[in-house]
Specification:
Elements: H1 7-21, H2 23-30, E1 34-45, E2 48-58, E3 63-70, E4 73-78, E5 83-88, E6 95-105, E7 110-112, E8 116-120, H3 123-158, E9 177-179, E10 186-188, E11 194-195, E12 200-204, E13 211-215, H4 219-233, H5 244-255
Parallel strand pairs: 2-8
Antiparallel strand pairs: 1-2, 2-5, 3-4, 3-6, 6-7, 6-8, 9-10, 11-12, 12-13
């Protein structure tokens, strides 16, 4: 009986052949030599490097030795894993350089990594770069400080007081509250207040607008200060006017103590 192959079997056979043909390619990928560069001490800004760095090569399990080169000039060899070599960029001229690793397996195969290209820069260049970064960051911080100072002193310069009404509910925030030594009223400690020692702040009172050295008050102290300011804000009861009869009686009583 002649062998008949259905279209489905033929398709499956073709897929199996194609899948099988990819195995050598996968095995070939595992034999690649990879070159990595690690910074030990120095500057690394993208492709620009300066200082002490380490070259590291990784490859197949039977990798026996690796030779490291800069611009096709051998700078060292590693004969046992990990295959690493440390170098200093300052020992080479400034400019672009090609870094490459060439490995040899136990079977004698030769493996070459992809070329890594870096620009070796001088310490002066690094110093200028860092100075520029520090100047930018410093300018940003200074701008924030000036904004904070403007927020602090603007109410004082404008003569405005933002104090809460007597007896009004207060939220002292996460920094807590303090009692002004000038007006004896409680206020929330500001985040932009100045440190004035251990748990002490140089802050501005929201009520009287004066600056004082204050410390964080307890809840009981703040509650007592709130009650005191509320009591002080209450108007005194008016003195009732005496009637004519009461005035004459008081004058008569006072005249008894006058010596004749």
């Amino acid at each position: 009986m002649p062998f008949r192959c259905s279209p489905l079997r033929g398709l499956l056979f073709l897929i199996a052949l194609l899948c099988g043909s990819t195995f050598p390619a996968l095995a070939q990928e595992s034999d690649e030599l990879t070159l990595a560069i690690h910074r030990d001490f120095g500057y690394g800004g993208g492709s620009q490097i300066q200082g002490l760095f380490t070259l590291e090569a990784t490859g197949p399990s039977d990798l026996a030795s690796v030779t490291f080169m800069i611009d096709d000039i051998v700078i060292g060899e590693a004969t046992s894993p990990p295959f690493k070599l440390q170098f200093d960029t300052d020992k080479y001229p400034a400019g672009w350089h090609d870094l490459i690793a060439v490995g040899a397996t136990a079977e004698g195969r030769r493996l070459t990594s992809q070329t890594r290209r870096f620009e070796f820069v001088s310490p002066d260049f690094v110093w200028k770069q860092m100075s520029s970064i520090f100047a930018t960051v410093g300018g940003f911080v200074l701008a924030l400080m000036l904004i904070g100072m403007a927020i602090q002193f603007a109410p004082s310069l404008l003569g405005k007081k933002r104090g809460a009404p007597f007896g009004a509910a207060r939220n002292y925030g996460w920094l807590g509250g303090a009692i002004c030594p000038k007006c004896k009223r409680p206020f929330a400690i500001h985040w932009w207040s100045f440190n004035a020692g251990f748990f002490r702040k140089f802050d501005r009172c929201d009520h009287c607008g004066k600056w004082s050295i204050v410390s964080r008050a307890s809840r009981e102290q703040l509650a007592a200060a709130e009650a005191a300011e509320l009591a002080a804000s209450q108007p005194e009861p008016p003195i009732s006017e005496l009637s004519l009869e009461e005035k004459l009686k008081r004058q008569l009583d006072d005249s008894r103590y006058i010596d004749e």
